[in-house]
Design a protein that fits this description.
With 264 residues, this protein is α+β, with helices and mostly antiparallel strands. 27% of the residues lie in helices and 22% in strands. The protein is built from seven helices and ten strands. The structure holds a DNA duplex (14 and 14 nucleotides).
DNA sequence: ATGCATGTTACATG
DNA sequence: ACATGTAACATGCA
């Protein structure tokens, strides 16, 4: 489920536990989410420590703790973070549970495609400084966007938008939403775009990012009915612009939803 | 039972 | 070397 804005939402869910001592660390080390970390070292570094801050970049999350400790979290397809107040509120697939004095900070992930990582460094871990430009940032301007599409001109736009090294945070629904709003078909190649379509795509990308953050990142509410978002998975779902039934195709191995009359 | 799912990556193929 | 496609990961749901 989690893309740019969902990740930002889940990241904020651990805030009630900030600046509280982590009294207990419970984790299920059988689970694939810990494939790139030593669970022993993870427990050692977290227990008695405190979360002091957090940030996101695309679909990545990074939590800062005292003593040069950083906790990386990726939610994969079905991961989520929650703060649980009630005692004994532990649920199935709660793979990491941090006990603080006012509740439990939980990482839950049924399909286990998500990942927990540990970094030890005085400042931000080095990899974090070298992440690609964020779509919401000023350096991600039209010139930069154009250069990406030029470099990967042969690739279908849908696949291109899903590339995390270029569009960090875009997932399946956001890619479809961006293309739909720009009125461009998802199977078009980057090099086939007219200049006006290129502009429309860029504007649409910025719009969808901003809107997603506004609606979803704050309280997980759905975007308005005027978006493709609420219609795309419904059987027989209709295009909010034309009222015509939406199309489904596989592109780059992912189910893609689009509107035939609307997107050229 | 079958097929599919808002993600990533290793491997295969051209 | 490069670009794109596919299978695999593990579980739940229709």
């Amino acid at each position: 489920m989690p893309e740019l804005a969902e990740v930002a939402f889940y990241c904020s869910q651990w805030r009630p536990g900030f600046n509280r001592t982590i009294r207990s660390v419970k984790l299920n080390d059988k689970v694939r989410c810990f494939r790139d970390v030593s669970t022993r070292q993870l427990s050692l570094k977290l227990k008695g420590n405190r979360l002091t801050g957090s940030r996101t970049h695309g679909k990545r999350m990074l939590f800062q703790l005292r003593n040069s400790t950083w906790l990386g979290v990726h939610l994969g397809m079905t991961g989520s973070l929650a703060f649980r107040k009630e005692e004994g509120a532990i649920e199935t697939h709660d793979h990491l549970v941090l006990g603080v004095e006012n509740g439990w900070l939980v990482f839950n992930d049924p399909r286990q495609f998500g990942k927990v990582e540990l970094y030890v460094s005085k400042g931000l871990p080095e990899f974090w400084e070298n992440l690609p430009r964020e779509m919401e940032s000023a350096p991600f301007d039209f010139g930069y966007f154009e250069s990406i599409l030029h470099r990967r001109g042969r690739s279908p736009l849908k696949s291109l938008l899903l590339d995390q090294s270029l569009f960090p945070g875009v997932g399946n629904w956001m890619a479809d939403e961006v293309l739909w709003r720009a009125r461009v078909r998802p199977n078009r190649s980057a090099r086939s775009l007219e200049r006006s379509e290129l502009k429309a795509l860029f504007r649409s990308l910025k719009f969808v990012c901003r809107g997603a953050m506004k609606y979803i990142a704050t309280d997980f509410s759905d975007p308005p009915k005027s978006w493709l978002f609420t219609h795309r998975w419904k059987p027989g779902g209709r295009c909010p612009k034309t009222g015509v039934e939406l199309e489904r195709t596989q592109i780059g191995g992912r189910t893609t939803c689009w509107s035939a009359e609307w997107q050229k």
